Amino acid sequence: MSEKTTAGTDKEANKQLNNPLHGVTLEKILTVLREHYSWKDLNRKVELNCFFSHPSIKSSLIFLRKHEWARKKVENLYLELMAAQDDQLPK
Q1: What is the total count of domains within the chain?
Q2: How many other CB atoms sit within 10 Å of the CB of residue 32?
Q3: φ, ψ at 54 (rounded to 5°)
Q4: For residue 12, how many other CB atoms are within 10 A of its CB?
Q5: How far apart are CA 51 and CA 67, in angstroms?
Q6: What's the average pLDDT block by block, 10 residues per block, for the chain (91 residues)?
């Protein structure tokens, strides 16, 4: 392996270490959000039709995998929820 390839790989690894969503699947994100919010609440917070019209994890996954803009909204809501839960932990 060349130095150039190794340096690129190290850079990617460091980037992923700083990514709070690294290793978290979209299905896991939706499951956590559903445990915390109802479909109605999710639709209020993110306003996506997949949370309003016949919502399910499966149909939401299909929609979110097709539409990056919608997936980003859901990921941001998940990150907000995780940050709020971290703030509530005793220190």
Answers
A1: 1
A2: 15
A3: 50, 60
A4: 10
A5: 14
A6: 55 68 94 96 94 94 96 96 79 56
